[in-house]
Amino acid sequence: MAKPPMKHWQRRRPLASSGSTTNHPSSSTSSTQGPSSSSSASRLAKIDLQVQVARGMMRSAFQKFREMFQYEVPDAEDIYDNPLYRLGVEGTKLELEVDERQPTIVTHRMYWQGNEDRVPEALSVAVASSISHLTISNCNIALADVRAVILLCPSLETLEVKQVAADANPIASLYSLASTLEYRAHGLRSLAITSHTRVDPLFDEILFPSIQSISLRLPGEGKWTNFGFLQSLGQSLKRLRIRGDIPPAGQKAIHRETARRQHGFELDMGLIYEAR
């Protein structure tokens, strides 16, 4: 009898994390375009994510998603879905057998990489699924897009955006969908943003009662962020990391709002402008 596929909790080949910046040439012309050299690929926009899907459904119900996103590791779909097999009635073929010991919801780690002008399409496909972790890199997006992604992904736990640009145009499809939502609270636990524009409007529009870690890298106009938003964050926040040439007034606001934090809170500030 053929050896059954390896169970996903026993897999030996490590899978790349959702925040990986490793670049791989695409094998799908529908999802990735551009030069095949590693130096050129490193400049392509990249979206890494983890999506939660019922076991076996990735093959049957996520055609558009599978056309756009792919696995970091070849044949990883079999590792994730991991069906068990048994001999047929006559012993001539293998049939699928459900194993109740396996979880019914499977988390798939996948990525998309391509030209920046296709980022709106890739993100529109991504937010239609149950994403738990998302990293967007090597492309400029608007702060309004960050807001839309958060609101459109209620299962999102970790978000990292590596280039929020002040002059980026919002993605119309995301903005239109997010504008119809009435709730303004989200269970996000970790947020990391590099932004060339102020980020306080994001926190003014969305409440994060479960946030545990925030990392802000604020070059350019990002340094003018109004840190008064920190008072709206609950005691769940345990770590705040800030990098940037923050003006004295901003530094004062940061220390004022974080001084009220309970024991165990960590403030990590670096590359801060010191007034003389």
TrEMBL record:
InterPro entries: LRR_dom_sf. Residues 16-42 have a biased composition (Low complexity). It comes from the Eukaryota. Residues 1-14 have a biased composition (Basic residues). Residues 1-43 are annotated as: Disordered. This is RNI-like protein.
